[in-house]
C-alpha cells in the first residue's frame, strides 16, 4: 500500500485516503507490482491505521517533502 501512496503522491502532489481512490487505480498499481489482491476492507483498515501515517512520514523523508503546518 505504500507504493500506491507513493504513486498517488507523485501524480497528485498530496496524500489521499486510499478508500477515496477508484479501485481500478489501486488495482492497476497492484498488478504492475505483481502483488496480491486487496479487499476494500483491507484498504479501509489501512486508512484508519497508524501504518498509513508512518508510510506518509517515510515518503516525505525519502522525497524531501515537508508537511504543511497551519500554525506558522
Would you write up a description of this structure?
- It is a single chain.
- It contains four helices and no strands.
- The radius of gyration is 13 Å and the shape is globular.
- With 72 residues, it is mostly helical.
- It has one domain.
- It has helices at 2-12, 23-33, 40-48, 50-63.
- The N and C termini lie far apart (31 Å).
Shape: globular
Query: Into how many domains do the coordinates divide?
Result: 1
Backbone structural class: mainly alpha
Put simply, the count of helices is 4
Largest β-sheet summary: none
Low-confidence sequence ranges: none
The overall pLDDT, averaged over residues, is: 89
Portion in strands: under 5%
Helical content band: 55-70%
Query: Secondary-structure element sequence?
Result: HHHH
Please compute the radius of gyration using only Cα atoms. 13 Å
Query: Roughly how many Å apart are the termini?
Result: 31 Å
Count of strand segments: 0
Brief sketch in words of this structure:
This protein is mainly alpha-helical.
Write the layout of secondary structure elements.
Blueprint: H1 2-12, H2 23-33, H3 40-48, H4 50-63
List its salient traits.
72 residues; mainly alpha; 0% strand; 4 helices
Amino acid at each position: 500500500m505504500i507504493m500506491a501512496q507513493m504513486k498517488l503522491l507523485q501524480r497528485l502532489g498530496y496524500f489521499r485516503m486510499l478508500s477515496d481512490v477508484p479501485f481500478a487505480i489501486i488495482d492497476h498499481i497492484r498488478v504492475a507490482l505483481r502483488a496480491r489482491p486487496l479487499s476494500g476492507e483491507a484498504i479501509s483498515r489501512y486508512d484508519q491505521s497508524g501504518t498509513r501515517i508512518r508510510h506518509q512520514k517515510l515518503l516525505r523523508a525519502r522525497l524531501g517533502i515537508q508537511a504543511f503546518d497551519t500554525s506558522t
